[in-house]
């Protein structure tokens, strides 16, 4: 008879039981999928809404000219012998810039010209390291004369503008998001390979969840230098060989994002003599250029695409909730664990501090602090995190008071385990289920707080979009352009509702008295 591999409830861990009960609540599962979809869309915003092509093949004369100009200025700075001469640290930075600009120029040139330029760049680096000003000026003039001509031939190659614009943080969160989405695919092989090595399994999971994203971000930071790309890629679409000097970008083939608009790109084709540039979602574009797609959610008062700003605004609104809750959950866990484990005077003092902080209305306290420190995404995340820890601390304290006299804790004390080991390795894992539920509700509250601050003008500073900021900008045109209120308001409503429904499902799933009711 085949052996049943499905473990019984008595053999499953607390987290496995919670997940099993959570999956029975289909509405909560759908809400969790919606939240994950919104987060994924926000993380991959550069590939979904951008005024830069995903990939194109052709020439970029603007990028080449900018590299020539920058190289000329850097060589002149290295050759400076006045009181403003660069010090050793600045000289090393300038030499790195010489190498970078030379690499950009060589990639654009034909093989013969690239080889000749490479020789001059190597000589420039040697002369710069030696401080030979005369030779640097000679090389600067030679490079400008031979390779700075407007008619110099450039070879066609493949460009990845969106990839080049990504930062290490973008790649870190993208890799983490992919790891999260692919969790059902890789967690079972990991369990099978480490079936008899529980300690190794923990390290593998830690490496995949934290190590892989961090390593990817670090390697990207080392391999792809940050630079300011000011190329106007849109002008190259209508260009031909005859207008190469005016467009500076020539495409042989090009692929644009689904929403080919930038955050601050204004589309004046809708103005039609009117002072406002509102375009309703159902209005067709007046332009005929190949890159110009429809404005799916309309435009705002200065012609910016609402769909683009919704996607990028989700980055701010969702990250504020997740990061702020992570901050105050960490603070609340540490403080509540100390109070609940040691009790006595420690618990008395910490409890009085918690009660004092609770006396202040949280939203008005945040308003006061933001008014002093100034509005920014970092300040808002930190302020929400520093003012919202009291509920988590009281919850953890109560769980520790319930668990601290259990047999497994007394056994650990008898074996001589340190308080740190007992708190974080034995007691805390058994007290985290209610914290997870509270954190889920807290994310929804933090998103609502950020939206309220942005609506009042004390949130994220322009031009960075957020859903609350978009609501605030649309209230003056609620009758002329109601879609400026509809879409960000609907996004906030859906996100908060989904978080609350997921929180309720987790609360029910973590309650043993309700596990048999569904």
Word description of this protein:
The chain has helices spanning 14-23, 26-43, 45-48, 61-78, 88-108, 111-130, 133-147, 161-165, 168-181, 183-193, 198-223, 244-247, 306-342, 344-359, 362-373, 377-387, 390-403, 407-414, 419-455, 467-474, 483-510; strands at residues 55-60, 157-159, 249-255. It has 518 residues and is mainly α. Among the domains are: 60-154; 306-514, Orthogonal Bundle (MetI-like fold). Strands 2-1-3 form a 3-stranded antiparallel β-sheet. The model is unreliable at 240-245, 272-276 and 285-291 (pLDDT under 50).
Topology:
Blueprint: H1 14-23, H2 26-43, H3 45-48, E1 55-60, H4 61-78, H5 88-108, H6 111-130, H7 133-147, E2 157-159, H8 161-165, H9 168-181, H10 183-193, H11 198-223, H12 244-247, E3 249-255, H13 306-342, H14 344-359, H15 362-373, H16 377-387, H17 390-403, H18 407-414, H19 419-455, H20 467-474, H21 483-510
Antiparallel strand pairs: 1-2, 1-3
Helix pairs in contact: 1-21, 2-13, 2-21, 4-5, 4-7, 5-6, 6-7, 9-11, 13-14, 13-16, 13-17, 13-19, 15-16, 17-19, 18-19, 19-20, 19-21, 20-21
């Amino acid at each position: 008879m085949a052996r049943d591999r499905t473990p019984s409830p008595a053999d499953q861990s607390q987290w496995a039981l919670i997940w099993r009960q959570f999956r029975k609540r289909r509405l909560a599962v759908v809400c969790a999928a919606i939240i994950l979809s919104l987060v994924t869309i926000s993380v991959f915003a550069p590939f979904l809404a951008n005024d830069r092509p995903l990939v194109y093949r052709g020439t970029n004369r603007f990028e080449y000219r900018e590299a020539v100009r920058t190289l000329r200025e850097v060589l002149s700075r290295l050759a400076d012998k006045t009181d403003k001469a660069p010090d050793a640290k600045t000289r090393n930075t300038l030499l790195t810039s010489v190498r970078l600009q030379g690499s950009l120029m060589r990639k654009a040139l034909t093989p013969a010209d690239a080889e000749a330029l490479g020789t001059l760049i190597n000589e420039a680096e040697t002369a710069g390291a030696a401080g030979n000003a005369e030779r640097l000026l000679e090389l600067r003039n030679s490079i400008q004369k031979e390779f700075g001509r407007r008619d110099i031939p450039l070879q066609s190659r493949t460009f990845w503008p969106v990839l080049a614009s990504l930062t290490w943080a973008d790649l870190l969160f993208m890799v983490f998001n992919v790891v999260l989405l692919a969790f059902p695919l890789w967690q079972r092989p990991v369990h099978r390979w480490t079936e008899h090595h529980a300690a190794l399994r923990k390290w593998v999971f830690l490496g995949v969840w934290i190590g892989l994203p961090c390593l990817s971000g670090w390697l990207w930071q080392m391999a792809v230098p940050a630079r300011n790309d000011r190329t106007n890629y849109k002008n190259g679409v209508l260009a031909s060989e005859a207008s190469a000097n005016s467009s500076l970008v020539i495409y042989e083939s090009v692929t644009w994002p689904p929403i080919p608009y930038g955050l601050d790109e204004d589309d004046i084709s809708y103005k039609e003599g009117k002072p406002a540039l509102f375009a309703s979602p159902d209005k067709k574009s007046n332009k005929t250029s190949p890159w110009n797609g429809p404005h799916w959610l309309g435009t705002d008062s200065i012609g910016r695409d609402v769909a683009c700003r919704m996607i990028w605004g989700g980055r701010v609104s969702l990250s504020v909730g997740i990061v702020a809750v992570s901050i105050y959950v960490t603070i609340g866990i540490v403080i509540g664990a100390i109070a609940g484990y040691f009790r006595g005077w420690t618990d008395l003092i910490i409890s009085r501090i918690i009660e004092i902080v609770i006396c202040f209305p949280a939203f008005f306290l945040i308003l006061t602090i933001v008014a002093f420190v100034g509005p920014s995404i970092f300040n808002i995340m930190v302020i929400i995190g520093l003012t919202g820890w009291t509920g988590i601390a009281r919850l953890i304290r109560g769980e520790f008071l319930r668990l601290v006299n259990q047999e497994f804790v007394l056994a650990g004390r008898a074996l001589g385990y340190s308080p740190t080991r007992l708190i974080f390795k034995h007691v805390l894992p058994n007290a985290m289920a209610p914290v997870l539920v509270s954190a889920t509700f807290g994310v929804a509250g933090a998103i609502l707080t950020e939206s309220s601050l942005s609506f009042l003008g004390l949130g994220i500073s322009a031009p960075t979009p957020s859903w609350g900021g978009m609501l605030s900008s649309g209230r003056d045109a609620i009758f002329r352009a109601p879609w400026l209120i509809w879409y960000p308001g609907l996004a906030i409503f859906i996100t908060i509702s989904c978080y609350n429904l997921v929180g309720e499902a987790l609360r029910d799933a973590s309650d043993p008295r309700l596990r048999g009711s569904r």
